[in-house]
Amino acid sequence: MSMASVFLVLSLAIVMAGSVSSSKFDELFQPSWSLDHFTYEGETLKMKLDNYSGAGFSSKSKYMFGKVTIQIKLVEGDSAGTVTAFYMSSDGPNHNEFDFEFLGNTSGEPYLVQTNVYVNGVGNREQRLNLWFDPTKDFHSYSILWNQRQVVFLVDETPVRAHSNLEDKGVPFPKDQPMGVYSSIWNADDWATQGGLVKTDWAHAPFIASYTGFDIDACECPPTASPADNARRCGSAEKRYWWDGPTLAELSLHQSHQLLWVRANHMVYDYCSDSARFPVTPVECLHHRH
């Protein structure tokens, strides 16, 4: 083999190793509870819920702005009462949080996806939708894009929610707290399925959620860094990250059309329309196309 061929093979090996390693669970994440409820099959991680415990994992680092994606195959069959969550959250009582919660179903019913946004410890911004595919049959990608202008929830790169920065309208926006990335599966049959009417049937346990394609492309915040350091590193104009580009300050026209389609065909609950809970429409509901 010529030196040129050797170099090419080595180069390809390095490229392939780089692309594979970025998706490896143990580079980015660690189990946070119930280690005996984890199994690894190559690049796939499985977490189970049984009548002893659920399980969860967390990122090894915290981040401020960027994009986080995980491919998930949800619990098959009768998953009523179970919740599988994928979310970002900061620490403390005034935390910020971006949630995907997948609410289990009785067989034949659609899985519901609940999203929520907490800012300074305040949530109550739930939206629920069903999906345009069966999320238990194959892996699908779920992403959170977060920059200084918006937070976008994406399913297979289709936006299902966009939460805009409306600080100019007096609405707080999450932009100054580093966030970890988390996932968990647990029993929530007091509320998850039909408002808690349908309970978990433990005869169908264990309930298994499968994960692959772990990807975090975000600004990492060292644990010792001060808020000012993090703001300078991740939020200032000194270093322009791809997610700060002008095209990502709002949804593109195509994405706006996709979101309108999702809302028209798949949304089943929007807090903005819930006048019983919110007699006065929340300010952000008057302004954003979310």
TrEMBL record:
The active site is at 97 (nucleophile), 101 (proton donor). One of its GO terms (biological process) is xyloglucan metabolic process. The lineage of its organism: Eukaryota, Viridiplantae, Streptophyta, Embryophyta, Tracheophyta. Keywords: Apoplast, Cell wall, Cell wall biogenesis/degradation, Disulfide bond, Fruit ripening, Glycoprotein, Glycosidase, Glycosyltransferase, Hydrolase, Secreted, Signal, Transferase. The keyword Disulfide bond applies. Its EC number is 2.4.1.207. The keyword Cell wall biogenesis/degradation applies. Residues 15-211 form the GH16 domain. Catalyzes xyloglucan endohydrolysis (XEH) and/or endotransglycosylation (XET). Cleaves and religates xyloglucan polymers, an essential constituent of the primary cell wall, and thereby participates in cell wall construction of growing tissues. It is found in: Secreted, Cell wall; Secreted, Extracellular space, Apoplast. One of its GO terms (cellular component) is apoplast. Its main location: secreted. It comes from Actinidia rufa. InterPro entries: Beta-glucanase-like, Beta-glucanase/XTH, Beta_glucanase, ConA-like_dom_sf, XET_C, XTH. GO terms for molecular function: hydrolase activity, hydrolyzing O-glycosyl compounds; xyloglucan:xyloglucosyl transferase activity. PANTHER family: XYLOGLUCAN ENDOTRANSGLUCOSYLASE/HYDROLASE PROTEIN 8-RELATED. Glycans are attached at residue 105. Residues 1-22 form the signal peptide. This is Xyloglucan endotransglucosylase/hydrolase. Contains at least one intrachain disulfide bond essential for its enzymatic activity. Belongs to the glycosyl hydrolase 16 family. CDD domains: GH16_XET (cd02176). Pfam families: Glyco_hydro_16 (PF00722), XET_C (PF06955).
